[in-house]
Amino acid sequence: MKTKLTTSLINSLKPRERPYEVWDTDIKGFYLVVTPKGTKNYYFFYRHEGAKRKFRIGRDGNITVAQARDTAKRRAGEVTDEVDIHAERKKRRSKGKAHTLKSFIEGPYIEWREVHRKRASGTLHTFEKHFFPIFGNTKLKDITAWNLEKWKTAQIKAGNKPTTVNRYIAELKSALSKAVEWEEIEDNPLRKVKPAKIDHSPNVRYLSNDEETRLRQALTGRDKKTKVERANANKWREARGYTLYPDLFSQTYTDHLTPMVLLSINTGMRRGEVFHLCWEDINFSTETLTIHGGKAKSGHTRHIPLNNEALTTLENWGKKPKGLVFPNKDGNPLDNIKSSWGTLLKEANIKDFRWHDLRHHFASRLVMVGVDLNTVRELLGHSDIKTTLRYAHLAPEHKAEAVKLLDR
Asked: Which of 158, 266, 309, 394 is the most buried (most CB within 10 A)?
């Protein structure tokens, strides 16, 4: 069978009693083998010095058809240069057998992440904290599904949330998929490891009216206290002939915390999106804020309308033609506000509330005033409506009207 290999075609292929091949019409020698068990493997056929060679690229599911196609193109070029790619891979593998998880992650994988993905430093931290202590010195080919299952069980027993554990598992699986693509290992040993079971309709943590009032009062009190402290410090400095610090009473906010909180509860932006927000992303004429795909978790650009409080907050913070809205002292994006955030929550007497819950608060308020879930999904930048459905129970008339139909 000859046809162009595409994702939809490959998904439609069913196993038969005997293995069969599907040859790609675009790249000579590129084909797929479907086994009786339903396994689908990509191969590249070539000749070297008259002898037939079959080069296994990888299993569908571990790599995509696009990745397999790129590898086939690259191998076709090497064959043109009279390279025996099968022999070359054996040589490289014999050298690379010493590749441990630690050396692979710290070497080629992080180098690749820094160019092609976000949060390379965060990924490295995840491996250093959660995987290197156990698997760091283990060779890539020796990491097994059973090893990870035991690790997963231990993490859950230690009190870690299933969603967090699943995120770490996804990081490790993704890294090993790259190892397969780069031919460091033959197959991804973790492809059959299932994520930990999670509650897909968890309780959503958002602020009650009283909590929001206390949070706002704590923000106002914090700015006021800082201004008074600055004024007292300047009196002391003036009496001794020292240079005075800038007067904070001429400013609405004393630092980034208040405007960041107010902007978050009125836009639903993720913390990282706030950290990397630039003045060029804000259009005061159309009263919109743009989160570009390169800064968004989903990778998709979205536009958020700005209400009066969000606009006023940004204007009072001090509009600039360009640059980061909330830079750190060195002019780089912020990366940590745990200390100031924790102190604020303590002052407001609010417990069990994370910065990310400001995003839940934004979504919850929208749903409770009757905004439809698809609009909420678009504002939050969710790729799947299933993620947004966690807020469905907050709709004031949603379930009540459905039950009332029984009265009719």
From this structure: 266
